[in-house]
Design a protein that fits this description.
The complex is a heterohexamer, with three copies of chain A and three copies of chain B. Chain A is α+β, with helices and mostly antiparallel strands. Helix content of chain A is 25%, strand content 42%. Chain A has one domain: Alpha-Beta Plaits, CATH 3.30.70.120. The two termini of chain A are 19 Å apart. Chain B is mainly α. Chain B has one domain: Up-down Bundle (Na+/H+ antiporter like fold). Chain B contains 16 helices and no strands. Chain B starts with a helix and ends with a helix. The chains are: A alpha+beta, B mainly alpha. Chains in contact: A-B, A-E, A-F, B-C, B-D, C-D, C-E, D-F, E-F. At the B-C interface, helix 3, helix 10 and helix 11 of B face helix 2, helix 3, helix 6 and helix 12 of C. Strand 2 of chain E pairs antiparallel with strand 2 of chain F, so a sheet runs across the interface. The complex binds adenosine monophosphate (3 copies) and sodium ion (NA) (3 copies). One adenosine monophosphate sits at the interface of chains F and E.
Chain lengths: 101, 324, 324, 324, 101, 101
C-alpha cells in the first residue's frame, strides 16, 4: 500500500462565514472537509472573543492539487479583500487517493 | 406624574441597578486585561435563555388579546425603523461626510435594535413594578429588520446583484429572531397556565441570567474599545448623540401610538439602541466592504454603555413627561 | 376512570404541553436550516441536570421504602426488555426481511429505552398531578441494558470474539447510567431532607431545563431527518407502528406488576420508546458493520416525535383503561 | 455549647451532606474510568456562578457595616497566611527534607486557600442555620495572596529576576479573585434590596450549583490520583496531617479575633484548605522548575477530600470547643 | 541544532471512538498525541451536531516513519470499513527527535 | 499566481501559557497566529481535563523559515525544560508571501 500524494488546504477565517463557505466548497465539488473552532490574531487584529462575530474557524480539506489551486484562487478573489482570512496548502500522503478528489 | 426633581432623584437612586454593575465589572476586567474570559458556550447558553424568556413573556400576554388589532402598530413600526435608518444615513453621509458604504452600514445598525438593551429596560421596569404592553417583544422583532434592508438599499441601490432572498432568509432565520419568535409562539399557544411550570427557569432567573449576560457584554465591549484609535471624533460623537435623539423620536412615536408609560419607555429604549447581532451579521455578508470595526465599536463600546448608564433613566423621564 | 370521550378531550387539551412545543421549535428551526445551533457543552449541561434530577427524585422516594421488595419486579423487567428485543428482531428480520445485523441492531434500540421520552412522561404526569411509583427511574435503568445484550447476541450468536466484559463495562459506565444511578444513590442516602436544599436547581427548574433539552433534540432530530431517503418504507412503518404495540405490552406488564395508573403509564412510555444514547454507542462498538444511520433516524426522527405527540396521550388512555 | 458526644452525633448525622456525595460520585466515576466527562465550559459556568454568589453574599452583608473597622483583621490575616506558608515550608524542607523549590511551591499552596472548600463550609453552616461574619469572603481573598508571595520568596530569595509586578498582577487579575471581589463590590454597592432580584440564580441555586461543581471536582481529583505513585509517603502524610494542624491554628486565630462560632469554623476551614487554582497558576509561572504534579495531587486529591469528609465536621467541633 | 524529520499522522474520525482509539494507539507504542474537537463532512455525510454520536475528533501524532506506516495500515484494516475516518501523513521537522518514536 | 513557501510552526503546550506565550510571540515580531483548544498525552502524562491547569492549546503560525528557526530555538530554551510542550515545523505554500514574515 504505497501512499499517494494529495493537497491539504487549510483556511482560517471568520466564524460567521461557516455556512456560506461550506456552501461554496460544496458547489466547487469539495465533498469532504473538517472544521475546528479557533481564535487568533492577524492583520485584522485580535479575533478571540466568546462571540461568534469575532471568533475564527479553521477548515481543512484534502483534494487533488489542481482542484486545490483552483479553489484557492477562487477564495482569494472572493474573500481575501473584505474578510479576515488566511490560506495555505501542503502535500499529504493518503492511503485511499480515490477518496480525495 | 412626578415632578422633574423627583424624577431626577429616582434616576440617581436607580441608575445603580445591579445588572448594570455586572456590565461595569466585565468592562473593568476586560480593560485591566484580567484573565477572566467566559467561553463561547456560556454566551450561547445565557443569551438563549434571555431570548426565550423575553419571547415567552410576550407570548403569554399576547394570548390574552386579539392579535389582529396590532397590524396598524406593526406597520407603523416598520416605517419607523426604516425612517430612522434614513435619518442616520443622512447625518452620517451628508453631515459628518462619512463614505457612502460605511454610512449605510452604520445606519442599518442604528435603525435596528439591541435585545440586550431591551432586556435591561424590562428589568428596569420590573424593579419599579411599572407595567408595559404585552406586544413589546413583537415590536422588537418588527423593528429589527427594516433598517437592515434600508441600509443595504442605501449602499447598493436597486443593484440586481443583491441577493435579497438570501439576506432576508439569513436575518429571519438568525438565532435571535428564531428564539424570540419561537418563544412568542410557544407562549401564545401554551398560554399563561401552560407556561407556568417553566417560570422558575425562564422568569424567576431572568435578572440573574441578565446579569451574567451583561458581564460577558462588558468583556466583549472592552475588547472592542481597542478599535477606538481608528475612529474619528465624528463617529464617537455620533454614537453618543444619536441615542437621545432616536430615543426622543421613539418616545414620541410611542405616545402617538397610545402606548402606556412603560411601553413608551421601552419603545424609546429600542429606537435609541443599536443592533450588534443581526445588523453586523447581515452587513458582513451583504456589504463586506464596509468596515465592521466601525459599527461594532460604536454600537457595542459606546452606544450600549451609554444607554445602560445614562439613556435608560433619561428615556423614562421622557416617557413620563410625554404622558403628563 | 374517565369515559373515552373525556379522555380524548383531555388528550387534545394537553397534547400541547409547552415542552413539546420546544421540540417542535427545534425541529422547525432545523428543517428551515436556521442558524440556530446549541454548542455541545450546552447539550451536556442540560442533559446532566436532567439525569441527576430524575435520579435524585427516584432516590429520595426509594429512601422511604424497603428496596429488597423490588427484586421480583426488577427480574420481570429484565425479562421484559429482552423479550421486546426478540420480538422487534423477529418482526424486522422475518417479517420485514431486513438483514440479520441491522435487524439485531435496531432490535437493541427498540427493546431499550429513551430517557428523554421518560422525562416528558414525568412532566406530563406532574402537570396533571398524577403520582407514580418511586422506583420508576430504577426500572428505567433496568430496562436499558438487557435489550442491548440481546441485540448483540442475535447478531453474533455465542461468538467467542465478542468482548462482553468490555461492552457491559462501556454501557454501565456510560454517562447516562452513571448520572442516573449516581443521582438515585445520592437521593437514597441523603433522603428527602438532605436533598431539600438542592431542590431549586434539580426539581424546580426541571421542566424549564427539559424544554431547553427538547429544543436541542428537535435540532438533532431535524439533522437526522436527512437520512430518510436511504430508508425503506418498511423501516419508517416499523418506527411508527412499534411504539403503540410495545406501549400496550408495557401497559399490560405494568398492570400485571400491580403498578398504579401513573406507573403503568410510565412503563408503557418506556417500552414504547427507543434508545438513542446507550444503544447506538454500544452497537457502534459491538456491531460496527450495522448501519447506524438506520437506527438513529428511526429512533430519533420518527419514534421520539411520535411518542411525544401521539404516544404519550395514548399510553395514558391505555393505562387508565387497564385500571378501570 | 453541645457536649462533645452530642457534637459527635451531629458529625455523624451531617457528614453525609449531599453535596459531598456528589464529590464522591465524581471521584468514583473517574476512578472507574467512566465515560462521564463534563466539558470545560460547564466547569467555567458553574465556578463563575459560585464565585459571584459568594462575593455577592458577602457584599450585601458588608453594606450593613463600617468597612474601615475591618482593617486590623485584614492585616492579621495577611500575617496569618504568610506565617502558615513559612510553617509549611519549614516542615517540608527541614523536617521532611523535600528540596527547596518544591517545598516552597507546596508551602504556597497550603498557606493559600481553596474556594471550593470554603463553599462547602458555607453550605454546611447553612444546613445547620448557623450564622457567620459577613466579611468572610473578604477574608478569603486576603488569605489567598500572601502565602503565594512567601512561597516565591522562599524559593527565589530577593532575586532581582522575579517579576513581582507581573506575578501580583496575574494573581490579582485571575478569574477567581476578579469574580469574588467583583461580586463583593456589586453586593456592597447594590445592597440587599438591589441584589434581591438576583437571589433566585445566585442564592437559591447555590447548593445545587455547588453539587454540580463538586461532581466535576471529583472527576478532576480522580484524574490527579494517578500521580500518586511518584509521591513519597512523606508528601501523602503531609497532605493529610497539615489540614487539622492548620485548621486548629485558624480556629485559634478566629477565636482571638473575636469571630463567632460560624466565623471561627470558616476561618479554620480556610486555613486548613490548600489552593488549587491561584497558587498552581502563579507557581507555574514564577517557579516553573517546581513539579506541579506534586502540589496538585496533594491539594486536590488528598487535602480537598480529607477536608470534605473529615475536616469540616472536625473544624466545627474545634470552633465550638473554643467558644465554650 | 539541525532539525530531524518525523511523520505527523492526522486522524479525523467519530468522537465516540476516542477512548477505544487512544487505547489502541497506546498499545501500538504511541506515547504522545494531541486531540481537538471537530466537525465535518465526508462520505458518511454531515457530522456536525451538538451531539457526541455525530461529531468528530481530530487526532495528531508524531512518530517515526516506519511506525507511522505500520499504524496507518492497522487503522485502515480495523476502522476504515465501518467508521467515518480520514487518515493522512506528512513530514515534519522536530528539534528533539528522541521524543518522537 | 505561483505559491511561495513559508514555514508553519505548530506548538502544543499547556493552556495556561496562552497569555505569556502570545506576548512572547508578539515580542518576537510574530503578527499572526491561530489557536485551538486541545487535549492530549505526552511525556508529562495525560492532559485532558475540563480544567485549564491540565488542558492544552495548539498554536499555529506561519512565518519565514529563518524567523521560524529562531523562534523555535527561543521556545526550546525558555519553555522546554519546565513545561509540557511539543514543537514542529513544516513547509507550506501560501499565496500572499508578504503577509507572513
Ligand atoms: N501568520 C499567521 N499564521 C497563522 N495564522 C494566522 C496568521 N495570520 C493570520 N492568521 C489567522 O487568520 C485569521 C485572519 O487573519 P487576518 O486576515 O490576517 O486578520 C487570524 O485571526 C488568525 O487566526
Ligand atoms: N477530503 C476531506 N478533507 C478533510 N477532511 C475530510 C475529508 N473527507 C472527510 N473528512 C473528515 O473526516 C470525517 C469522516 O470522513 P468520512 O469517513 O469520509 O465520512 C468527516 O466527517 C470529515 O470531518
Ligand atoms: N508525539 C506526539 N505527537 C503529537 N502530540 C504530542 C506528542 N507528544 C506530546 N504531544 C502533545 O504535546 C503535549 C505536551 O507534551 P509533553 O511535553 O510530551 O507532555 C501533550 O499533552 C500532547 O498534547
Ligand atoms: Na435603534
Ligand atoms: Na423500548
Ligand atoms: Na490554607
Amino acid at each position: 500500500m504505497t501512499p499517494s500524494i494529495r493537497k491539504l488546504v487549510t483556511i482560517v477565517t471568520e466564524a460567521q462565514l461557516e455556512r456560506e463557505l461550506t456552501r461554496d466548497l460544496e458547489s466547487h465539488g469539495i465533498l469532504g472537509y473538517t472544521i475546528t473552532d479557533a481564535r487568533g490574531r492577524g492583520a485584522h487584529g485580535q479575533r478571540a472573543s466568546s462571540w461568534e462575530l469575532s471568533s475564527n474557524i479553521r477548515i481543512e480539506l484534502i483534494c487533488e492539487a489542481a482542484h486545490a489551486a483552483e479553489l484557492m484562487a477562487y477564495l482569494q478573489t472572493h474573500y481575501y479583500q473584505h474578510y479576515a482570512m488566511v490560506l495555505y496548502a501542503q502535500d499529504v500522503e493518503v492511503l485511499r487517493p480515490d477518496k480525495f478528489r | 406624574m412626578p415632578r422633574p426633581s423627583t424624577a431626577l432623584a429616582k434616576v440617581q437612586r436607580l441608575s445603580i441597578d445591579p445588572v448594570v454593575l455586572f456590565f461595569l465589572l466585565g468592562l473593568a476586567a476586560g480593560l485591566a486585561k484580567s484573565e477572566l474570559r467566559l467561553p463561547p458556550a456560556i454566551y450561547d447558553f445565557v443569551s438563549t435563555l434571555l431570548l426565550l424568556s423575553i419571547g415567552l413573556k410576550g407570548g403569554i400576554e399576547l394570548a390574552r388579546q386579539p392579535v389582529l388589532a396590532l397590524v396598524p402598530d406593526i406597520l407603523a413600526l416598520i416605517l419607523l425603523g426604516a425612517a430612522l435608518a434614513f435619518l442616520a444615513f443622512a447625518l452620517l453621509h451628508y453631515v459628518a461626510r462619512i463614505n457612502r458604504i460605511d454610512s449605510a452600514a452604520i445606519a442599518g445598525h442604528y435603525g435596528s435594535v439591541s435585545v440586550a438593551t431591551f432586556a435591561v429596560g424590562i428589568a428596569w421596569l420590573q424593579s419599579q413594578t411599572i407595567s408595559y404592553e404585552a406586544e413589546m417583544p413583537l415590536f422588537l422583532v418588527m423593528l429589527e429588520v427594516p433598517a437592515i434592508v434600508v441600509g443595504i438599499l442605501l449602499a447598493r441601490g436597486m443593484d440586481a446583484g443583491v441577493r435579497w432572498g438570501h439576506i432576508l432568509r439569513e436575518v429571519l432565520l438568525g438565532r435571535s429572531i428564531v428564539l424570540l419568535v419561537g418563544g412568542l409562539l410557544i407562549g401564545w399557544v401554551a398560554g399563561p397556565d401552560g407556561v407556568q411550570p417553566l417560570a422558575p427557569l425562564y422568569f424567576d432567573l431572568f435578572k440573574g441570567i441578565l446579569a451574567l449576560f451583561l458581564l460577558e457584554m462588558g468583556l466583549i465591549a472592552a475588547a472592542q474599545l481597542g478599535g477606538f484609535r481608528q475612529h474619528g471624533v465624528k463617529l464617537i460623537a455620533f454614537a453618543l448623540v444619536i441615542p437621545p435623539i432616536f430615543g426622543a423620536i421613539g418616545a414620541f412615536a410611542g405616545t402617538l401610538m397610545g402606548l402606556s408609560v412603560g411601553g413608551t419607555f421601552l419603545l424609546a429604549t429600542l429606537t435609541a439602541s443599536a443592533s450588534y447581532i443581526a445588523a453586523p451579521a447581515s452587513m458582513r455578508s451583504a456589504l463586506p466592504e464596509a468596515n465592521p470595526a466601525l459599527s461594532l465599536t460604536m454600537s457595542l463600546a459606546l452606544t450600549f454603555p451609554f444607554n445602560l448608564l445614562v439613556g435608560i433613566p433619561l428615556y423614562q423621564t421622557m416617557a413620563e413627561w410625554l404622558h403628563r
